[in-house]
Design a protein that fits this description.
Layout lengths: L1 H29 L9 E5 L3 E4 L11 E5 L4 E6 L5 E6 L2 E6 L3 E4 L19 E4 L9 E5 L6 E8 L10 E7 L2 E6 L32 H23 L9
Length: 243
């Protein structure tokens, strides 16, 4: 009887250590490393568009704005082989990977700042760079103060001889588009002088986290036979009397 209790005690300890080690492995597999949660940034290497949709259709209703060369965006999602979903100047959209290069540092100044627009003809602030009756946000009067530049955009030609250039601006509590023909022009945008280091492509051989469902299934598969062994260790045996 003492031998049985001793063997039972040893078997119980072995099984419990095994179960705890399995739990530790599964928890480590379910843990998402911090590097996968870090905010990612990219520098605009070539002037490119921020698209509203992943179709990258070149239309006034699908292009949010122009992303200025040398400035930065926040990478939100690695959408597919050709596109990132990004945030630029407070707007979310899609940008071509070929025009961006990921950096390893947090940019101090992500987009052009401190640029104001001089309005020389009263015009409308619109929700899209298109002349329409249903996209008017408010009226911007001649010489209105605090019309702050956000980004350039292309859209409808609202006035002959002035081309398709619009400005995405902040005015009061609204953000929208005004046609460049109603302004005194913007002039050249100074490139960013910020020094950054680029993320070099590496082969990541770390174990990626397993989905919780797979971990549960794996846990059941491992623990089921152990529970059977545990049952037989606890199962009492019959003592046979010596004849």
């Amino acid at each position: 009887m003492l031998d049985f209790e001793y063997n039972l005690h040893i078997g119980y300890n072995i099984i419990m250590k095994y179960i705890l080690s399995i739990f530790a492995i599964l928890i480590s597999l379910m843990h998402v490393p911090d590097t996968y949660c870090a905010t990612r940034y990219a520098q605009v290497m070539d002037e490119t568009y921020l698209y509203r949709s992943s179709s990258t259709e070149h239309s006034a209703t699908n292009i949010v704005c122009i992303m200025e060369r040398s400035y930065f965006c926040t990478i939100l999602v690695d959408y597919d082989a050709n596109l990132f979903k990004v945030s630029y100047a407070g707007f979310e959209g899609y940008a071509k990977k070929a025009d961006l290069k990921e950096v390893t540092t947090h940019p101090k100044v992500a987009t052009p700042l401190g640029i104001t627009i001089d309005v020389n003809l009263s015009c409308f602030l619109r929700s899209s760079p298109v002349v329409a009756s249903d996209n008017i946000l408010c009226k911007v009067y001649e010489n209105a103060p605090n019309v702050v530049f956000v980004a350039r955009a292309y859209g409808d030609v609202a006035m002959d001889m002035y081309g398709p250039v619009w400005y995405l601006v902040s005015y009061g509590n609204a953000t929208g588009y005004i046609y460049s023909g109603y302004t005194k022009g913007l002039g050249p945008i100074m490139p960013s002088s910020e020094k950054v280091s680029y993320l070099e492509p590496i082969i990541d051989d770390r174990i990626l986290p397993l989905p919780a469902t797979y971990c549960i299934i794996l846990l059941v598969i491992i623990l089921l036979p152990m529970s059977v062994i545990f049952f037989f260790l606890y199962k009492p045996y019959k003592k046979h009397k010596l004849k």
